[in-house]
Every structure is written in C-alpha cells, then in structure tokens.
Write a structure and sequence with these properties.
This protein is of the alpha+beta class. It contains two helices and two strands; from the N terminus they run αββα. It is globular and about 25 Å long.
C-alpha cells in the first residue's frame, strides 16, 4: 500500500489532522502556523519528518 502525506496530514497542512492508519493526532505541517516544522534540514534530509 502506498501512503501519501495527505494520509497523515490531511488536505489542509495548516490545520491539525489525524493519521488515518494510527489515529494519532498530528500537528500542522505548514511552517506558517507551526514554526518548528520543516525547520531542521538534517531531519528533512534524513526523512524523519516523512516517516521513512
């Protein structure tokens, strides 16, 4: 099964969402509302934010 970002983050990346597989709440991904997201280049490069 192929998972997409929308599976976890929903269609609107500026709002809180719930992972459809685990039911876990996920904070907004958009840096405009969550300054900590996508701010660590090392984590982004290593895929940690993508769940890889």
């Amino acid at each position: 099964m192929k998972a997409y970002c929308v599976s976890s983050h929903g269609n609107n990346l500026s709002q809180k969402a719930q992972n459809i597989f685990t039911g876990k709440d996920i904070n907004p991904l958009a840096p405009s509302v969550n300054k900590a997201r996508l701010s660590d280049a090392k984590e982004v490069k290593n895929g940690k934010l993508l769940g890889l």
